[in-house]
Amino acid sequence: MRTRLSLSVRGKRLLRELKRLRTERGMSPEDVAGQLGWHRTKLYRIERGQSRLILDDLDELLELYGVRSPERESLFKLGKEAWKRGWWLAYRDLYQGESFFVMENDAARISFHAPTLLPGLLQTEHYARRIIRTMDPICDDDEVERQVSARVERQGVLSRADPPIVTAVIDEGVLRRSSGSRVTDREQLQHLLHLSQFPHIDLRVVPFSSGVYMGQAGQFTVFEFPDDGDSPVAYQEGLFGDVYVEDSDDLARYTLARTESLGAALNPQETQALLSDLLKENE
């Protein structure tokens, strides 16, 4: 079986730039193919992310479009980073697509808003196993273990040399709701307290005393990327499928919900104090 490659956020930006350059020069994909001696469908497939763009082909395109440095060097750098063999390919049979993993891997900032469930990136292995079994009761043991392995693999993003900045707003009810094991719950609370010590992880809890707040309407994640040219993406996971939101008007509502949720939450020090209190209650 041929190994599939995942187009990164940087790769998508490169393809947008190449299409922009071609359009500005008034050329059709057939014009480009004719001048470069390519098959007439080759550029269509490249611009749609259906074929890998090798650096020799990128060089030919940039020469044809008359692109010079520093823009040329910038686009070559994108080309080197465009295609990735992601760890998630080993688990592709478990999930509908790769978009979530690619965005999580490429994001500079990840904002979790969790009124109902603890985000997978913050779960311990034992807690994840219990949650997966509960949420997908028809899974056999092997599939559960593979889902747990994938979730643990994801968490490597938090300990890499250039981790994303993570903000997690978690409802107090999520922390108080038992997974079914007191030992597992305690381990999970200790893990959250440990994560809260890292400078790139901003953990906030919305206490019951805050009452109803806007972010309580649903669980969602917002991904923001290093380059200003890459718009944020909001992600919502539901019982009937995943939703990705990129429209600016819709994103504004998620941004407002994020702001309102942070306003209702405890600050980091107060959050750590609450976690410590919950640990004492679980002794």
TrEMBL record:
Positions of the HTH cro/C1-type domain: 18-72
Coiled coil: none
Source organism, top-level taxon: Bacteria
InterPro entries per the UniProt record, alphabetical: Cro/C1-type_HTH, DUF5753, Lambda_DNA-bd_dom_sf
Name by which UniProt lists this protein: Helix-turn-helix domain-containing protein
Pfam families assigned: DUF5753, HTH_31
Gene3D superfamilies tied to this protein: lambda repressor-like DNA-binding domains
UniProt lineage: Bacteria, Bacillati, Actinomycetota, Actinomycetes, Streptosporangiales
